[in-house]
Amino acid sequence: MPPPKGRSFPFAPRHSADWLVSHVTYDQAVDMFFNQTATQQNLGHDPLVYSKVFRGVTYATLQEAQQVFTETMNAEYEVREQRDLADENRGCKASKILNDNIRNRIVPTEDGLESLTAYRKPFGEKCVSPLLAVASIPITFVAGTIILVGASFTVWAIDKNTDFQNKVVEASIEYFN
Length: 177
Description:
The chain is mainly α. Helices cover 59% and strands 2% of the residues.
């Protein structure tokens, strides 16, 4: 029996040609989707922007527009969720039903099949600032660069002391002669 039908993400599938020209990768888009509030996830909001214009303001880059869009939408929905939680706590039956539907939402997956183990962001939980997510990129880049430079320097130093490269080239020439 096949798994139950679930939901796909509200953006292009992983192998779509759209990702060749996108300002983010598929994995970044998935992370951005799960960083949204529970309400945004339940409504199937696409976390990506496709234009430099947001609410009548034209931004210099798509990344800048994405940053403003993400911060604005997350903040608006965080306020909305807090209001819905307050209504539920006051005994509003409609808010209770709506909030329970959001809490029990089907989480999108890459293959569109329902996942029983998928993480569901708790209703009312705050979003992580996109600035924190972007801040980790330079650290990774710097660490990778340090490793690359260190490895290159080590190879260079060993070659300087042992003259390994000349020995390999001479051995190869002798072998083919």
